[in-house]
Amino acid sequence: MTRYALPAIFALFAVALLLLAAGCAEQAPASVVSSGGLSASVSKVESHWNFGLGCYWKPSGTVYNSGDADAQNVVAYIQLIDTATGSIRDSKTVAIGTLPKGASRTFDVSLDGECDRSYRVEVRPVAGP
After folding, report:
1. What pLDDT, in 10s, does the model give residues 93-119?
2. CA distances (Å), origin 22, targets 8, 49, 58, 82
3. DSSP 30
4. In Å, how far are 8, 13, 24, 93, 123 from 75, measured between CA atoms?
5. Residue 88's CB: how many other CB atoms inside 10 A?
6. What percentage of residues in the chain have a pLDDT greater than 90?
């Protein structure tokens, strides 16, 4: 190996990582959904990349209860949706629990995605029996 081969390989590897990470820089648009006095909003969606996970998105948001009564067994269904195909790339269910009337709770999750795709986040809060 020549004296410059190792630094050149390292430089190419670094450029490849930067290009791959640049594909994860786009933030996914978020939705606001209301259902039966419950509503949810996404305040921010950050995209990340690391060796172990590849590209992943971290939506943060809030579930609100604007109804007339306490909401029991509330869960938030959070989906990362491919904007080109409309297919669900990843989803998580977050247990919110009891949400008194007028109250809100925040959530943070990680959703797996592909670096070269564009996504939006949808959140649907539901109260159980």
Report:
1. 999 999 999 999 999 999 999 999 999
2. 21, 9, 16, 18
3. B
4. 51, 43, 28, 7, 10
5. 13
6. 67
Residue with tokens 């269910």: 93
Decide: 96 and 63 in contact? Cβ < 8 Å: yes
Q: Is residue 67 within 8 Å of residue 126, measured between CB atoms?
A: no
Domains of the chain: 5-126 (2.60.40)
Task: Give the Cα separation of 85 and 11 in Å (integer).
Answer: 35
Q: With 60 as the cut, is the pLDDT of residue 6 above it? A: no
What is residue 108's three-state secondary structure? strand
Question: Over the stretch 40-58, which tens digit does the pLDDT of each residue have?
Answer: 999 999 999 999 889 999 9
Quick count: other Cβ atoms within 10 Å of Cβ 47?
19
Q: Which two tokens stand for residue 20?
A: 């791959």
Contact criterion met (CB below 8 Å) for 42 and 64: no
